[in-house]
Amino acid sequence: MRQHELRVEERRAGPDNNGMLSLDSVRRVIRRCDPSRPAAAVNVLMAECTALPLDRVETETATLVNAHGVRTKLVSMLIKPAGKLPVLP
Question: Radius of gyration over alpha carbons of the chain, in Å?
Fold first, then answer.
């Protein structure tokens, strides 16, 4: 994942976002970076990078999370030079 993907979503959220992004925005970024990742794997990755329980990640879309924290955690999870995230079990 290129860090600018999340920054684009932050700008899209507008100046009043106070550094927060919706779970739906984070999901879009992951899908753009790795469209072949199964939905269940996306949810597991999101739960890990947001520290939210998996059941909340699976059912909520508008919950706001700290963009900087998510960006930092996602970047540290990268393993492929192409910028794709690893497939989690």
Answer: 12
